[in-house]
Each structure stands twice: as structure tokens, then as C-alpha cells.
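Retro notes, item 3 of 5
We never archived the inputs for the FVH complex last cycle. Fixing that now. Sequence and ligand:
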Amino acid sequence: MAQNTAEKTSVTLLGLGAMGTALARTWLAAGHPLTVWNRTPARAAALGAEGARVADSAAAAVAANTLVVVCLLDDASVDEVLAGTDLADRDLVNLTTSTPAQARARAEWARERGARYLDGGIMAVPPMIGIPEAGGYVFYSGSQELFERHQETLGVPAGTTYVGKDPGFAALHDVALLSAMYGMFAGVAHAFALIRKEDIDPASLAPLLADWLIAMAPAVHQTAEQLRSGDYTKGVVSNLAMQVAGTPTFLSTAEQQGVSPELLSPYFELMRRRLAEGSGEEDLTGVIDLLLH
Ligand code: FVH
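Structure as it came back at the time:
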């Protein structure tokens, strides 16, 4: 049931895919007057039935409210959708996944059109939207003043984390976290592949795997400390020399289990290169330096 709309900021939302629709529903439920537009009208009509005002063009939707939130597939679709709109004096919040360079270019593009700009990177999947205990949030960067002005409204669907004036920083934080996630998924894929041909129930490995990854996750704090201090031997528990010595065990096991080492090998190769530089007493942190061009 929608709450009282008095004094709630009116929002325009362009893009009603899985994420846009989830965002829209939370603003409607919280009593924010909402104007929506979507390329495929049926998706907007569904939200119209739930209380949103449906604009018949992106331009009309942008004209309806100062706060304009965009949640489209990619940067090219943002170009397409905003092409015929008048952004003068609008507060444009772009939640479309972008690269940092695209976000910076979009901020400049918006400034040239007279709009204030905030970029967002969503750290949530649609079912987490509107459920605070699910822990989803959105990175924001760009105008701090704009962020503070709309923080309450932007905080309705998910938590808000402002990461700086540089409009590219939200995208950079987003991509950094998701890149780490893909590294984790790669390790998980390798682990399940190792047991795939054995009489081991994947469901029995899953909780062990999850608990181990959770136990290892705090190691990121030590990595950050070492990067800050420049001393990669600080607090080392399992040094690089010992870890490199263990890599043949992992590669042999993969071979014995009929599993390709292609997900593990690139990382092991970097570890070996760092060791060859005489860094055996260090943590794995030195690998980061090898990645930088
Ligand atoms: N869904 C997720 O799990 C992730 C979670 C993290 C953040 N991402 C990003 O959020 C953006 C939107 O994602 P989405 O899940 O809503 O994506 P879709 O369901 O595929 O909807 C895409 C919307 O974009 C519209 N659209 C696409 N191309 C165009 C175009 N050329 N012109 C106009 N609109 C376009 C599409 O319209 P339609 O297909 O319904 O007509 C949808 O509204 C995204 O950046 C994720 O990376 C989601």
C-alpha cells in the first residue's frame, strides 16, 4: 500500500527492465510520485496500474520532474534515450552500468546540457531492492551537493555510499567489486570441477566452500594495509615462497581429476614471477604490482 505522497520528492525513471521495475516499485510503495517511461510500453503500463504516471515519451518524462533517474542496459542506450530530451536544470542520476570513462564523459555531456549529474553503480540484484536487510546498496559519485540533496529519495530502494566527486569513481568501485566477485566465481567453478567426476555430492561441498571463502575474505584488510605501508611482508602468515611451492600440488590434482588448469594458471604464473623477483617473504600483495602496466 502506497504511503502518503505529501513532501516526497517526485521522481522520473527511464528504463523499466528487471532493475528499473524493482526501483520503481520501492518509490511507489514509499509514496514518491513517480513518472516512468520505457522503450517497450507494456512494462510502463504495468507500473501505471500500480500508481505510476506513464509518460508517452522520454522527453515528456524528463520534463515532468527535476530528479531524473536513468537505469538502462548500457551507455549506448542512455545516449539513445536521452537524445531528444531537454536536460536543462535537471538532476540526472545515472544508474546504468558504465565504465569510469563513460561515466566521466556522461557527466561532462550532462553539464553541457545544463544538468547536474550523479553517477551510480548498483551493488544489488533486483530481489534485493527495497529489502534493507538484503544488504544491497548503490555507489554514487559526482556532485556531492546533488547526492546530499537526494540521498533520502535515493536511499529508498537500497543503501547509498558516496565515493567521491570524480564521476567515474562509482563505476570504478562497482567494477572493482564485481571483478573480485568473478575471481571468486572462477575459483568456485574450479573447485566444483575437481569433484565433478567423484562420488561427492556438490551440495555437501557447497557449505564448506562458502564458509572457507567467508573465512578468507578478511584477508583483503591486510592487503590494503600492506599497499598503504608499502611493506608487503607486514603480518605475513603464509609467505609467497611457501605458496608457490604448493602450486604443483594444485596443478597435478587438476590434471589427475581431468580438470583444465586454465582458471588457476594465470594467477600461479604471476605468483611465480613475483617470487623470481626475490619476494619470497612477502604476502601475495606483490601480484598487484605486476598487474599494473
Ligand atoms: N539485473 C541485475 O542483476 C543487475 C544488477 C546490478 C546492476 N545492473 C545494471 O542495471 C542496469 C539495468 O539492468 P536491468 O536488470 O534492468 O536490465 P534489463 O532487464 O535488461 O533492462 C534493460 C533496460 O534498458 C532498456 N533498453 C535497452 N536498450 C535500449 C535502447 N536501445 N533504447 C531504449 N531502451 C533500451 C530496456 O528497454 P526494453 O527492452 O524494455 O524496451 C530495459 O528497460 C544495467 O546497466 C545493468 O548492468 C543490473
